[in-house]
Amino acid sequence: MSHLVNTPQQPVSPADWETGFELRHTEAQLPYKEYTGALDLAPTDRRRYRLVRLPNNLTVVCVEDSSSAHAAAALTVNIGSLSDPPEHPGLAHFLEHMLLRGSKRYPRENELSDYVATHAGEYNAATAATDTVYYFHLDNAALEGALDRLACLLVEPLMDAGCTERELNAVHSEFVGGRQDDMRRAHVALCTLANPAHGIARFSVGNRDTLRSEPPKDIREELLRFFHAHYSADLMKLVVVANHPVDTLVEWTVNMFSPVKSKGDTRPDLPFHPLGPDELGRVLRYESLGNNHCVSLVFAIPEIKSSYFADPYGYIISLLDRKDSGSLF
């Protein structure tokens, strides 16, 4: 198995959000920019798409799918465990858990997940090194209420201190469970090879020891500080798919998500690659818990996100995976 380790050394240049965009207004007279150029779609795709940019720089793709039996939405924030403060490893993951614990408009705990479940749907979230994603699907008729509840969590979250201990236990349970997962153990082992000064080498899941503060309200203050410092609309992308008219989807998302605060680019500065000259040419052996046997080759490559459309990653993988004469196999 081969892995390409690609960590941006500097934030990728922003996309051009002026060319091809025109100013529009919702019925409530909220401004937004709509892309009027041609989107790159499959010839057989009959869905209607709308790409818009909110005043706070949050990007939204609305998709009208008249054949869809359910509605779905996914919101990603370009902030993950690499933004954890050194004194609280796992804080980004803990925030993912605590964000769900009510908002000023919908103060009841688990309001969003309960609402989604009540309408034949499912909710989940995940935290990675550079991104955190929140997503759900449910009945089409209930989409407006779900979007409003999600938006309110990003505008005025409560993060009730009364939920802190229980969510700490939930995060700790994930940590304990992960120790029995060979794939997670392999990932952690790989991270130990990185430059210790780079964030990728730090513990990222979190547990009671890294997240507990005395008194418990202190960690809530750390959560709020992290949220207000890093959760910026500029780094958020939202995709909504439903059988509602695309104009309706745009109206809802612009009205609901425009209040999310713009704070600029709050991503961490990553001035060097996690696998520098001192970290290369090393061999790590570890014992699996299950009956798993694997050899992983890790290659350090420069930042390639800015070349996304050229897909250099896929090109390299295709060369490594070739099994014909003269290949690595």
Explain what the structure shows.
The protein is of the alpha+beta class. The chain has helices spanning 91-98, 111-118, 143-155, 164-178, 182-191, 208-211, 217-230, 246-257, 312-321; strands spanning 2-5, 21-25, 31-35, 48-53, 59-64, 70-77, 122-127, 132-139, 236-242, 297-300. The chain is 29% helix and 18% strand. The strands form 2 sheets. The protein has an 8-stranded mixed sheet. A two-stranded parallel ribbon has the order 1-10. Helix 1 packs across helix 4, helix 2 packs antiparallel against helix 3 (143-155) and helix 3 packs parallel to helix 8 (246-257). It is globular and about 60 Å long. 30% of the residues are buried. The model is unreliable at 9-14 (pLDDT under 50).
Write the layout of secondary structure elements.
Elements: E1 2-5, E2 21-25, E3 31-35, E4 48-53, E5 59-64, E6 70-77, H1 91-98, H2 111-118, E7 122-127, E8 132-139, H3 143-155, H4 164-178, H5 182-191, H6 208-211, H7 217-230, E9 236-242, H8 246-257, E10 297-300, H9 312-321
Parallel strand pairs: 1-10, 5-9
Antiparallel strand pairs: 2-3, 3-4, 4-5, 6-8, 6-9, 7-8
Helix pairs in contact: 1-4, 1-7, 2-3, 3-8
Briefly, what is this?
The chain has 329 residues and is an alpha+beta fold. The chain has 9 helices and 10 strands.
How far the N terminus sits from the C terminus, by CA atoms, comes to 11 Å
- Gross morphology is globular
Low-confidence stretches: 9-14
Strand content: 15-25%
Order of helices and strands: EEEEEEHHEEHHHHHEHEH
- Briefly note the structural class of the backbone: alpha+beta
Q: Please state the average pLDDT score.
A: 90
Strand order of the largest sheet: 2-3-4-5-9-6-8-7
Number of helices: 9
Largest sheet: 8 strands, mixed
Fraction of helical residues: 25-40%
Rg from C-alpha positions?
22 Å
Please provide the count of β strands: 10
